[in-house]
Design a protein that fits this description.
The complex is a heterodimer of chains A (about 160) and B (about 170). Chain A is an all-alpha fold. Chain A has 8 helices and no strands. Chain A is about 80% helix and about 0% strand. In chain B, about 80% of the residues lie in helices and about 0% in strands. Classes of the chains: A mainly alpha (about 160), B mainly alpha (about 170).
């Protein structure tokens, strides 16, 4: 089955029809959950990256700051995934044709891999080398902000 | 002069017209507005949760406040400027959606709360912020901040959903 056919069948599934005919205010509520998840995850990402760059909570231990903010990242991801599915399923075919949608999810896939490999490893050190820390922080911030940016663009393109 | 006529004049400027006619400017400005929000409201929430004792309890309050303040203000500046640009483009239309003026009122309230907190507690944080217990007033201001900034974000996100001219 092609991706396009898959997206079509998702939209026309029983779940797709149920979610698609939900009251518009439920749709708005789901968007609120989505932005709450985004704020949870981005604030944690910003906090750790500022620390990597030597700003913000610069006197705190890097691994401890990562440990303190990790649950926040998981809660944020959970809220984003649940509300995201609710937004995606009833309109899957529309998103298939949207370049901002694909940009967002390619960036998200890249940043998630980096987050749980390179980023995790670099931030497990008490004081990583300056150049490595700066490069990691910039990569992380650009990719995460890129995800948010592309996500916001979906509705306009 | 009424609010609507001011908004209409902004709407009719060259900038306002150019913004509405451009395909790329809207997603761009909305995207930057959102990133500014993640910086400002995101870090405000972290600060507030520290003040009420729900997050980063091992980190001195003074470090949270002084370390994050410039980033909160930078984020607020980004959100504010992009917000003004969005008003220039679409002011008369969004003014008709009651949740938008409500959002502006909430921003003023949240801002006054932040100002009061800064004047009363912000300057002396290096004195009281190192203690494990700190003034109740600071905690109340943190709760007011949590609730009011959350309400601002909720109102902002609801603007397109309560726009009866679209649906």
């Amino acid at each position: 089955m092609s991706t396009e056919a898959l997206f079509n069948s998702i939209q026309h599934s029983a779940l797709g029809s149920v979610l698609g005919t939900a009251h518009p205010l439920i749709g708005a509520l789901v968007q609120l959950v989505h932005i709450a998840g985004l704020l949870l995850i981005l604030s944690a990402i910003v906090l750790v990256n500022l620390r990597l760059l030597g700003f913000g909570l610069k006197r705190q231990s890097l691994p401890q700051l990562v440990k303190a903010t990790t649950p926040q990242i998981w809660y944020g991801l959970a809220l984003l995934a649940l509300s995201g599915l609710f937004i995606f399923i009833p309109s899957a075919s529309i998103y298939y044709a949207n370049p901002a949608f694909w940009t967002k999810f390619i960036l998200l896939a890249i940043v998630l891999v980096i987050q749980f490999s390179l980023f995790k490893q670099i931030t497990s050190a008490e004081s990583p080398k300056r150049a490595v820390a700066v490069l990691t922080a910039f990569t992380s911030l650009v990719l995460w902000f890129g995800v948010a940016f592309a996500g916001r663009a979906i509705g306009f393109i | 002069m009424s609010v609507v006529s001011i908004l209409q004049q902004l709407h009719d400027t060259q900038l306002g017209t150019a913004l509405r006619e451009s395909l790329i400017m809207f997603p761009l400005i909305e995207g930057v507005h959102l990133i500014g929000l993640a910086l400002s409201v995101g870090l405000i929430l972290i600060t507030d949760l520290r003040l009420v004792g729900l997050f980063l309890r091992n980190v001195p309050v003074a470090e949270v406040l002084n370390g994050l303040r410039p980033w909160v203000l930078a984020g607020f500046a980004i959100t504010f400027v992009t917000g003004v640009v969005l008003i220039v483009a679409e002011g008369p239309k969004i003014w008709e959606i009651p949740v938008f003026p409500l959002k502006l009122v909430l921003i003023v309230l949240a801002g006054l709360n932040a100002l009061w907190f800064e004047l009363k507690y912000g300057k002396s944080v290096s004195v009281w912020g190192e203690h494990s217990t700190f003034p109740n007033g600071a905690k109340v201001a943190a709760w007011v901040s949590l609730v009011s900034w959350s309400a601002v974000v909720i109102c902002g996100r609801l603007i397109p959903y309560l726009d009866t001219t679209i649906h």
